[in-house]
Amino acid sequence: MRVGIGILGGGTVGGSLANQLLREAGAISAKSGIDVELVAVGVRDLAKKRDFPAGYATDDLEGVVDDDRVDLVVELMGGIDPARSLLKRALEAGKPVVTANKELMANHGEELIELAAGRGVSLLFEAAVGGAIPIIRPLSESLAGERIDRVIGIVNGTTNYILTAMEDEGRAYADVLAEAQALGFAEADPTADVAGHDSAAKAAILAGLAFGVWVSVADVHTEGIHGIDEVAIEMANSLGYSVKLLAIADGGERGHVARVHPCLIPMGHQLSSVRGSSNAVFLEGPNLGQLLFSGPGAGGQPTATAVLGDVITASRELLAGSQVTPRIRYSAASPRSFDDVENQWYLRLIVADFPGVLAQVAGAFGAADVSIKSVWQEGRGGTVTLVIITHPAQEKAQRSALEKLSALDAVDQVAAIIRVLDEE
Ligand SMILES: NC(=O)c1ccc[n+]([C@@H]2O[C@H](COP(=O)([O-])OP(=O)(O)OC[C@H]3O[C@@H](n4cnc5c(N)ncnc54)[C@H](OP(=O)(O)O)[C@@H]3O)[C@@H](O)[C@H]2O)c1
């Protein structure tokens, strides 16, 4: 049975999807019994050269949504508007929607999912997190019966590429970022990636699906990687850790909390083997134990493959008259404050080298109720480097210790603070 597909956006992912639909239509029909038919691809600039047949391109995006031959709309434009208004238009017309837009789903997912549910149509967004890695469907369907306790993701390929290259080649952050931009792994304006905003949107989506609550991006504590220097990475490595930008979402009785920040992870941890631009999502639950999903987190063809999976599912549901949105029920719940989250901290301090300095430093931690797990000292005479890893303590206690440390005359500089993925 035929399903007409209208794509909004014919760039990296939209262009790949258009080609996959044209190339694979016969194989899809043989496997699924559905005849997917590309109708049109909406773009901004008709003069741009396309890698799909030019006859499909149009700059009338509302026309694509409204076209009677289009049964299903795929949004691959990115950004909030006009993607949001076009998708609302499609859903209001009773057309199922597939999108890869994490920014839209993290900020307006609630509105779109409610609209789709009200109209009884499918809204699928597998490629919004982790590119080609199936993670949305496993969380919302395969693992719907599991109480997920924790999600840990490496969900931004650009930052993982930068941190891996810094670790493997001992190079500086700015140098690797410039190379990543030249190779097309990083945007000309890399802020959304390196400041952690892209990961925060994905953390909100993952936390929402894992715990069945609406999670606002504004509630995701977000720190980026620009404070990580090559010395921090070298020292972390020498202590047996890798540095990763992690999106972590914790559930539990005390409430959910989601955060994005750089983290030291033990080199034996499964996530430390996720190198380069790869992505991974690690799940923990009482019955399943641990599960790791990993693979290409971006790229036109890998991402289009995940989108195509959603297109086939949504088509199947459309034809069967069994469209399901939402896959899981979301409830409203207040998040736990990040201040109350317990973390281990790694600190690198530059301190004056005199007898009793260690006691002063230890005293600052003690006064804030933070206990020290291990201390390393490098150098002698003048100033020395102290590397300290604490036991887990609440963020507010760690920050209080930091204030007390910074006020000590003996402490010249707090050169690095990185959280440690809890081992205790
Ligand atoms: N690239 C990836 O690896 C990847 C991975 C996972 C998810 N995603 C998500 O997939 C979506 C698409 O990403 P992409 O990399 O394919 O983006 P892209 O290469 O920048 O393509 C965007 C497309 O949308 C069109 N477009 C944008 N704004 C428009 C407007 N106002 N009116 C008409 N057309 C407009 C552009 O038209 P022109 O071509 O005429 O400029 C272009 O064809 C985003 O939500 C992104 O986050 C991408």
How would you sum up this structure, described in words?
The structure is a single chain. This protein is an alpha/beta fold and 424 residues long. It has three domains: 2-132 and 300-320, Rossmann fold (3-Layer(aba) Sandwich), CATH 3.40.50.720; 144-294, 2-Layer Sandwich (Dihydrodipicolinate Reductase, domain 2); 340-420, Alpha-Beta Plaits, CATH 3.30.70. The protein is 37% helix and 25% strand. It is built from 13 helices and 17 strands. Strands 7, 8, 9, 10, 11, 12, 13, 14, 15, 16 and 17 form an eleven-stranded mixed sheet that branches. The protein has a six-stranded parallel sheet with strand order 3-2-1-4-5-6, with helices on both faces. Helix 6 (157-169) crosses helix 7 and helix 12 packs antiparallel against helix 13. The longest helix is centred in the first third of the chain and has 21 residues, at 12-32. The protein is elongated and about 80 Å long. The model has no long low-confidence stretch (mean pLDDT 95). It binds NADP nicotinamide-adenine-dinucleotide phosphate (NAP). NADP nicotinamide-adenine-dinucleotide phosphate binds at residues 9-14, 42-45, 48, 61, 76-78, 82, 100-102, 127, 131, 298-299, 303. The site of NADP nicotinamide-adenine-dinucleotide phosphate has 24 residues, from helix 1.
Low-confidence stretches: none
Helix proportion range: 25-40%
Mean pLDDT, to the nearest integer, reads 95
Kindly provide the radius of gyration, computed on alpha-carbon positions and rounded to a whole number of angstroms.
24 Å
What is the element string, with H for helices and E for strands?
EHEEHEHEHEHEHHHHEHEEEEHEHEEEHE
Number of domains: 3
What is the overall number of helices?
13
The name of the CATH topology of the largest domain is Rossmann fold
Proportion of residues in extended strands: 25-35%
End-to-end span in angstroms? Answer: 55 Å
**Fourth CATH level, the homologous superfamily of the largest domain:** NAD(P)-binding Rossmann-like Domain
Multimeric status of the protein: single chain
Give the name of the CATH architecture of the largest domain: 3-Layer(aba) Sandwich
Global morphology: elongated
Largest sheet: 11 strands, mixed
SSE-based structural type: alpha/beta
Which CATH class of the largest domain? Alpha Beta
**Number of DSSP strand runs:** 17
Ligands (ions, cofactors included) = NADP nicotinamide-adenine-dinucleotide phosphate
